[in-house]
Write a structure and sequence with these properties.
This protein is α+β, with helices and mostly antiparallel strands. About 70% of the residues lie in helices and about 10% in strands. Strands 1-2-3-5-4 form a 5-stranded mixed β-sheet, with helices on one face. The protein is rod-shaped and about 155 Å long.
Length: about 425
């Protein structure tokens, strides 16, 4: 667009000062050749007057609005008439008449462009043949004039054709630029919409994550603290129905143990909100320590095994596997009554597997009731944790044959 503006500016300069420059050159040549061509005094005075008229005509045109119009046609053909008269007086004024070739399409309406070019060709052929004096003095001059006129008209057609093709190409380029700008605007609008949609998705994902964490906390509290408080209430209510001090002491002792256990579960739940075990240690070390502490607390033999080459996992993956292990161990302590528990962390290919196995009571996975407000949902919570990081969780168990909980998550490095 900048190049187009530069070209238009230069054409405007040529339209403004070009006729003056061409007229000046023609006048200089006319003065030099006046004696050789035998110009009379009257011809010289007429030449001077016509030159002044040409200058005044150009100055008046500069004050008017330029461009193809009726005023432009009037100026063009008036200048043509002056150039014809000057060429009849001295053929070197064809230098001035050549301006008509350059300004026809810039001053004349489209329907008059060819007419203006043909008229200019008439003057140019007359200048080439030497003016009317040569037509009168030399017999074959008219044939030469006709040939020169035909040549000029042919050149007019050739250059008009080239100009038409150039104009069509320019219009096509202008249309392409307009379409490109429209496409860019549409693309920018689409990018803005995508950015807004991305921001909305981020907000929704954050809200979904908050909702998932709230459900996890609800399950955690329901399965631990709420059940412990229910047991404490049951033991204290039992105290009201007996008078034997020994039985009362037994119920109170049970209530105290349940209270201590619930306190421990509450602390563990708060601890799970931010897995400090992973703050300074990798997942294998945190799992090993969790298994050892669980074994010491419950008195159940427990072992941790690491298989494969250990990798530093993404924080979210490590936290997910650690919490699944803690939940599985907690379920085993509460429900399975095992004598032995094994925890295995395996790095294999593009996955990380966590297996928690016990030899406890076991259960029928198909008979596990759906989640409700009165029951815990530890298995469902573990499965939700795994699926949240594009993983999966499977449970294998049979009554009397123990339980195996297996979680698989994609291996994504810390960096």
């Amino acid at each position: 667009m900048r190049n187009v503006s530069d070209v238009e500016r230069r054409w405007d300069l040529f339209d403004r000062w070009g006729p003056h420059a061409l007229l000046g050159v023609a006048l200089l040549l006319a003065v030099v050749t006046a004696d050789e061509l035998g110009m009379s005094r009257a011809a010289r005075i007429a030449t001077a007057l016509l030159a002044v008229a040409a200058v005044l005509l150009q100055l008046s045109w500069q004050r008017l609005a330029r461009g193809p119009s009726a005023a432009g046609a009037c100026h063009y053909f008036t200048r043509w008439a002056l150039s014809l008269a000057l060429t009849c007086l001295n053929p070197f004024f064809g230098v001035y008449a050549v301006q008509g070739y350059f300004s026809a399409d810039r001053q004349l309406p489209r329907r008059l462009v060819r007419t203006g070019l043909y008229a200019t060709a008439v003057v140019m052929a007359l200048s080439n043949v030497g003016g009317p004096a040569q037509l009168r003095a030399w017999g074959p001059a008219w044939a030469v004039y006709a040939g020169l006129l035909g040549m000029h008209i042919g050149l007019v057609h050739v250059f008009a054709h080239l100009a038409a093709k150039e104009q069509a190409q320019a219009e096509a380029q202008a249309a392409f630029i307009v379409e490109l700008e429209r496409t860019n605007a549409a693309l920018q609008q689409a990018l803005d919409e995508n950015a807004a949609l991305h921001a909305q998705l981020v907000v929704q994902a954050r809200e979904a994550g908050i909702a998932d964490e709230r459900r996890r906390l609800a399950a955690e509290i329901h399965d631990t603290i709420a059940q412990g408080l229910t047991g404490i209430i049951a033991q204290l209510q039992a105290v009201e129905k007996v008078d034997d001090p020994a039985v009362v002491h037994e119920h109170v002792d049970r209530a105290a143990r349940l209270a201590r256990h619930s306190l421990g579960e509450a602390r563990r739940s708060v601890h799970n909100l931010a897995p400090v075990d992973l703050e300074h240690d990798a997942l294998p070390t945190a799992l090993r320590r969790t298994v050892v502490e669980w074994s010491e607390r419950t008195g159940v033999r427990a072992e941790f095994t690491l298989a494969g080459a250990s990798r530093q996992l993404h924080n979210e993956l490590a936290a997910t596997l650690l919490r699944i292990a803690q939940e599985a161990l907690s379920n085993a302590a509460r429900h399975a009554r095992p004598s032995r528990v094994g925890v295995t962390l395996t790095f294999v290919g593009p996955e990380v597997m966590l297996d928690v196995r016990d030899d406890g009571l076991g259960f029928d996975p198909s008979a596990v009731p759906a989640r409700s407000h009165s029951r815990g949902f530890g298995l469902a919570g573990m499965r939700t944790r795994a699926e949240r990081v594009a993983g999966s969780l499977t449970v294998e168990s049979e009554p009397g044959l123990g339980t195996a909980v297996s979680a698989r998550v994609p291996l994504v490095d810390h960096d």
